[in-house]
Amino acid sequence: MSKVDILGVHVDNIDKDEVQRRIEESITQNRKDVYAYVNINAINVPRRNPRFRDILNRASVVYCDGEGVRIGARILGVQLPPRIVLTYWVWDLCRLVEHKGFTVFFLGGTEDTIERAVKNVRDRHRRIQIVGWHHGYYQKNGAGNDKVLDMICKAKPNILFVGFGMPMQEEWIESNLERLEANAILPSGSMIEYIAGNKHPAPLWMANHGMEWVYRLIQEPRRLMGRYLIGNPAFVFQVLLQAKKGGGHR
């Protein structure tokens, strides 16, 4: 599987069907694999947090979640497949879990949010095996963390979704990877918020034209203004510099 190096982050040239096939393989072969996603923010964060770049590059698969990353790859001479957006893709994964008899654990969100999310998943997939869930607002070390890890280890889910936001979720997975009993571990950002109905995805016409960031900026201007209005142009500028120096093929 080929990769493209975008500002030091190694992004897999992989489509949704192949990622899903690999997740199924992780389960049937009883492996433990991390499936990380990247958007522009994920590639910008390592500029001030080099550890995060290393964490991403150690993941089993790093798939493209943002249209901006695809644009960056094109600047570097690589055509990535359509982006894989977990807020939409999660329902395909739930169908896989239900059909194959796999199990899933959800971690993240507030207590009310995670309970609504679990209910909504069960309403859509009556036979799905959700073997556990826990909110994300707990101490990520010490006794509180041990309690959550014990829950996961006892449940032994095939798929574990971890939604703490970036880079906390990836750092938590890295720190606790040896203790986690799960086959496919997916950082999931705000996916649980969307499943619960707290947030709503952009209209498809915006998402399909790379304008989802505009929709999200309108929804959360205070939180996302710096990420998009400063981070996006900075990303493009840095990628242009990288292209000038020789591209990103690996």
Annotation keywords:
250 residues, alpha/beta, 2 domains, six-stranded parallel β-sheet, two-stranded antiparallel sheet, 12 helices
Quick summary of this structure?
The chain is an alpha/beta fold.
Provide an overview of this structure.
There is one protein chain. It is globular, with a radius of gyration of 18 Å. The termini are close together. The longest helix is centred in the last third of the chain and has 25 residues, at 221-245. The strands form two sheets. It has a six-stranded parallel sheet, with helices on both faces. Strands 1-2 form a two-stranded antiparallel sheet. It is an alpha/beta fold and 250 residues long. It folds into two domains: 1-17 and 38-84 and 205-250, no CATH class; 86-201, Rossmann fold (3-Layer(aba) Sandwich), CATH 3.40.50. The chain has helices spanning 16-28, 40-44, 50-58, 67-75, 86-100, 111-124, 142-155, 168-176, 191-196, 204-207, 212-219, 221-245, and strands at residues 3-6, 9-12, 33-38, 61-64, 103-108, 129-134, 159-163, 184-187. Helix 11 runs antiparallel to helix 12 (221-245).
Helix/strand-derived category reads alpha/beta
Strand order of the largest sheet: 4-3-8-7-5-6
> At the third CATH level, what is the topology name of the largest domain?
Rossmann fold
Order of helices and strands: EEHEHHEHHEHEHEHEHHHH
Radius of gyration based on Cα positions: 18 Å
Report the CATH C-level class of the largest domain. Answer: Alpha Beta
Give the beta-strand count.
Answer: 8
